[in-house]
Amino acid sequence: MRVLVCGASGGIGSACVAALTAAGHQVHAVDRDGIDITAPGGAEKAVAQAVDALRGLDGVVHAVGRSGRRLGDGPVSACTDEAWREVQRVNLDSVFWLLRAVLPVLRGKDGGGSIVVVGSALARTLDRDFLTTAYLTSKSAVETLVRAAAYEGAPDGVRVNVVAPGLVDTPMAARALTDPAIAARLPELMPLGGGHASAPDTVAAAVAWLLSPAAGQVTGAVLPADGGWSLR
């Protein structure tokens, strides 16, 4: 399988690159230091570069994301304009731009293809310690966008899905991972993880499965890989 991974230097993105490469897939990895898909025109460049480098494309992973806390993300009454705009650009606009760029490529080839977007359990759950309006709204909108893309792509064999992790041990989660109050709540928040954040490679394994033929009848779905976060 020939796979484009966007956000390849992040915690989850790099784990996806490692997992897919280890499984024998050809991977074209991009990040904002090379091609920034969170800017207009970046997604088109990334897709064109991947098609050229891999001589075609079978799968795509969107693992780009950011928190807006440092910009003032928080409850609705406190969320800043800057946080709202920046988080939507990175977490939502980039998904739209990538889907728009890659759908015609995958729909135009025999056998279709598979697209996986890394979402978040926060798209469907609210919690007092994670009440970041811009972030959770962006991830909720991504789920609807993915369903629209899945509906469009299905007749041509293109599958589009979301993997929704809970708290993952990555640099982006550093604030939560070092907060004693949140650490004390992890057994409640993620009971399957035994009170620990998920390792990035567990999320990558879910991504790899959705890309694979084993998930050939799965599209428009949200796969929780959250240690039980969404059970509350």
From TrEMBL:
MF (Gene Ontology): oxidoreductase activity
Source organism: Jiangella aurantiaca
Pfam families in alphabetical order: adh_short_C2
SUPFAM superfamilies xref list: NAD(P)-binding Rossmann-fold domains
The keyword Cell inner membrane is annotated on this UniProt entry: no
Keywords: Oxidoreductase
Similarity section: Belongs to the short-chain dehydrogenases/reductases (SDR) family.
InterPro entries: NAD(P)-bd_dom_sf, SDR_fam
Top-rank taxon: Bacteria
Protein name per the record: SDR family oxidoreductase
